[in-house]
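Q: Entry one of two.
A:
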Amino acid sequence: MARVLAVANQKGGVAKTTSVASLGAALSELGRRVLLVDLDPQACLTFSLGLDPDTLELSVHDVLLGRLPPGIVIRSTPDGSDLLPATIELAGCEAILLSRTGREHALRLALGEIAAEYDFVLVDCPPSLGVLTINGLTAADEVVIPLQCETLSHRGVGQLLDTVADVQRLTNPRLRVRGVLPTLFDGRTAHSRAVVLDVETRYQVTILDPPIARSVRFAEAPGLGRSILTTASRSKGAEAYRAHARAIAGGGAGTGVAAKPSAGDQATGRGASRGRAGGEGEAGRAPRSTPRLATPSPVQAVPSEAAMPGAVMPEAVIPGAAVSGAV
């Protein structure tokens, strides 16, 4: 059976698509059978892997609505992985699914038909917390959270973790958070390092090493229809994704964190951990000091509404609820 990883963050521009394409190529290099699923109506993953979404007649839209089996829609890519592509029609699919019973399970049921054909399935979730993202999380065994190392990106992590907790409770109790993957990282700046440290201590999640350094090579690759592992094979970014792929292929768990800790745990610092590329965090220890962060820029701690006690569960996972496409 395929192991399913969702890559999710409701903020756009944090390298979700880049991470899915690069991890897929890296896992293919290791000889694994990989399927990539584009759940974003913008179809950036589809375009990045050399397909023109405007010319595709069949897409994941048809699969989610039960019109076609996934095997008919899947396309091969030059980097070795297969792709379940997206088109702009996927935007209308979300509205249709809202009126259907069991809408959160559409992707999980579709992947069940082809699970035996792949070792890994990587799902590129859209930048929202709507029904498409809920489908990705419901189908997944683990979720990876790309984090652009800036304050505004950091604020959305708490909201996503609340959504993960709701999915675990209602539609997918096996879902685990593998960890937060720092992207667009510039280790020369105190701000980038301070954001990562604050996310680690605030939410008690594993920070996946190595971070993905900012590089123009990532921007160049989609124009060639390939991943950075092909266009800049020896770059630091390509090597970083290879390291993460080896950890995933080796079966290493990024973290056992299921949800954010209680307010009491946050006050005492219990449960903090720092994972190393697929290693288990050291649960129960207080956050260790980090001497190399000499004088980090303070990160404004602005708790999001979803991170507060009593936050309302995203309506997209409540059976029968009528909601808009995003929370």
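Q: Entry two of two.
A:
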Amino acid sequence: MLRRTLLGAAVAAAALLPLAGASIAQERFITVASTTSTVNSGLFEAILPAFTEETGIEVRVLSQGTGQALETGRRGDADVVFVHSRPAEEQFVADGYGVARIPVMYNDFVVVGPQADPAGVAGGSDVVAAFAAIAGAESAFASRGDDSGTHQAEKRLWEAAGVAPEGSWYRETGSGMGATLNIAAQMPAYALTDRGTWLAFENKADLGIVVEGDRRLFNQYGVILVSPERHAHVKTDDAQAFVDWLVSPDGQGAIAGYTIGGEQLFFPNADEPGA
């Protein structure tokens, strides 16, 4: 009786094996290392279902700062990187880790700060002058401090202002954009953020936009296929399908169609090769 029971169980298990194997074989996905801003803003949640429905390819996103995302690509732990620091992106390709950098979309950075505005910068459009004023007043400033695209942009602005930020007024969080905005809201403090994450951020508390509109706050995003010559395991065909979709009319339309409160978060510009 026991032997018949065990034999029946073995036959049942054997019958399931082809089904399990088929399920595994059908699993089709790529890994994309991207910035916290594309995740925190809700962009991927809005557009990826359309890509998966069209192609059958699932996209698994690693949410990291640009510096970390590019490092993930260098290690071959992602098939695609989708980030926003053009000098770092171009170096990534020049070093042989990426196939080509392709522009996808843009938005802009804004400076947010408390309503009390202790540095007196609210309403300004000169971001470098605002940074100099914040440092001069030693007003609290929350920096990501994580080598992200936003942090790299912030460092360029401090340099343009002739300031080496340090002291108790300057707080490096080592965190993503959402977490840094939470800290800025609690302190309260000034911070540099991309507009997309700001619009999606719900815990604004006492914070509001104090500086915007400076051309130096332009924020371009690019996508790069990780080099299969450097990392043979890269899922080249499926990853290239994702890159192609992002810059196609369907992908660009999906990006343009993503809004919060009627306000568009990102502006597609794949048709601008020099972007």
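A: Comment on entry two: The chain has eleven helices and twelve strands. The CA atoms of residues 103 and 273 lie 7 Å apart.
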